[in-house]
Amino acid sequence: MADLRNNFVGIKSPNPFWLASAPPTDKAYNVERAFKAGWGGVVWKTLGSEGPPVVNVNGPRYGAIWGADRRLLGLNNIELITDRPLQINLQEMKQVKMNWPDRALVASIMVPCVEEEWKAILPLVEETGADGIELNFGCPHGMSERGMGAAVGQVPEYIEMVVRWCKQYTRMPVITKLTPNIADIRKPARAAKAGGTDAVSLINTINSIVSVDLDNFAPNPTVGGKGTHGGYCGPAVKPIALNMVAEIARDPETYGLPISGIGGVTTWRDAAEFMVLGAGNVQVCTAAMTYGFKIVQEMISGLNDWMDAKGHRNLDDITGRAVPNVTDWQYLNLNYVAKAHIDQDACIKCGRCHIACEDTSHQAITSMVNGVRHFEVMEDECVGCNLCVNVCPVENCITMVGLDAGTLDQRTGRPVDPNYANWTTHPNNPMSVQAAE
Ligand SMILES: Cc1cc2nc3c(=O)[nH]c(=O)nc-3n(C[C@H](O)[C@H](O)[C@H](O)COP(=O)(O)O)c2cc1C
Ligand code: SF4
Ligand code: SF4
């Protein structure tokens, strides 16, 4: 059995699966049920300042995108931070932490960008016994209009300033949660590091309108005839989140900064992907909201089985393992050559690969041979783009096969060069080293 115990900036949990700050972590009732189901930790639904709590809309707050089988792919919400009184949340957090000392309990906080506000709330949170705090610099709707959430996360100077206050006024580890609604994710991450953050977590939700009600001419979800942009999350955002995690993990300025990976984690495999790209653990929201708390059991057993099968003993064995293999386009090996290959036994002769290649790629797949439907790759035309692999409805029916060095590439008429060569030295590159000589 692989050891799934997680130590994230000194916060210990029996596994790396935490619930992200959101409705699943809004109250003791939920969190207790989540811990019973097996979650390693939670980030409590974001707390605001003492005083009258925020007010949510009393109508629909979600919109969604579905796959053809009605499986939820993307979720959009216009919910604010917790609308429960601060004192009640704090009391419940204290009780839950006492009942579940081995689980991680992190408090998410969002108060105005004023030093006194942060100074006031931190001791109250510390008193609950929470293991750490997460700064919500990500909420893209409602709170950002009030100068909080993403409004802070989009200004690196503010991030650095608030992180500094938090490091000054609490001994709890500080996790800075970043907004993806920014051009270059490395900048807020660097600012958080400069302020002294112990870690970053990402992503929060993405600005989005998921659909428009064409009868009422208003975005969904529609509240009294009007809609607003919401925050997008769920499986659809995973690719964006993975890229942002990798960007921070490989940036020399933030290299080694602990990362909590968030965004579309639904299976153990998603979690493993975040972790090999540099995340020390993962947080989950939409998958729990869609399938319930027990989904964590499949995540735990799946991760464990994969690690056992591959001989990975603990999470340190996998964290960041793929980071050295993430590079810039200019460093990809231009001498590498692959060709598509169709398994004729698996092919159901639907023709999708042919039409995709014929209309939009390189006219490299037959459709008819001797008057019979037959789909086969013509190696002398195939550029190896793998579009056909992605449109084929039969998994593993089309595979990409790398050509060995020295083999003749029928398209170019040249043998495959065994040497690595990239764009920086390519003769067609006006900026290349060779061209400069
Ligand atoms: C309904 C809803 C409410 C959320 N509320 C918060 C919040 O209060 N604080 C916060 O930091 N993130 C909040 N989030 C964002 C999630 O914590 C998480 O970053 C995001 O949903 C991406 O993860 P996922 O794809 O697993 O859902 C909320 C998400 C949803 C769907
Ligand atoms: S890899 Fe690209 S070029 Fe080759 S057959 Fe497939 S779609 Fe056509
Ligand atoms: S898309 Fe796949 S199944 Fe369909 S014809 Fe091409 S190889 Fe066969």
Automatic annotation (TrEMBL):
Family the entry assigns: Belongs to the dihydropyrimidine dehydrogenase family.
The UniProt annotation puts the region (Disordered) at 418-437
Enumerate the InterPro entries for this protein: 4Fe4S_Fe-S-bd (IPR017896), 4Fe4S_Fe_S_CS (IPR017900), Aldolase_TIM (IPR013785), Dihydroorotate_DH_cat (IPR005720)
GO cellular component terms, alphabetically, are: cytoplasm
Entry function? Involved in pyrimidine base degradation. Catalyzes physiologically the reduction of uracil to 5,6-dihydrouracil (DHU) by using NADH as a specific cosubstrate. It also catalyzes the reverse reaction and the reduction of thymine to 5,6-dihydrothymine (DHT).
Q: Which CDD domains match?
A: DHPD_FMN
Q: What's this protein's name?
A: dihydrouracil dehydrogenase (NAD(+))
The EC number of this protein is 1.3.1.1
One example of the protein's molecular function in GO is: metal ion binding
Query: What keywords does the record list, in alphabetical order?
Result: Iron, Iron-sulfur, Metal-binding, Oxidoreductase
The reaction(s) catalysed by this protein are:
5,6-dihydrothymine + NAD(+) = thymine + NADH + H(+); 5,6-dihydrouracil + NAD(+) = uracil + NADH + H(+)
Does the record's keyword annotation contain Metal-binding? yes
Q: Which domain of life is it from?
A: Bacteria
Any idea where the 4Fe-4S ferredoxin-type domain is?
A: 338-371, 373-403
Per UniProt, the enzyme's principal EC class comes to oxidoreductase
Q: How does it assemble?
A: Heterotetramer of 2 PreA and 2 PreT subunits.
Instruction: Report the source organism.
Output: Peteryoungia ipomoeae
Compositionally biased residues, Polar residues: 421-437
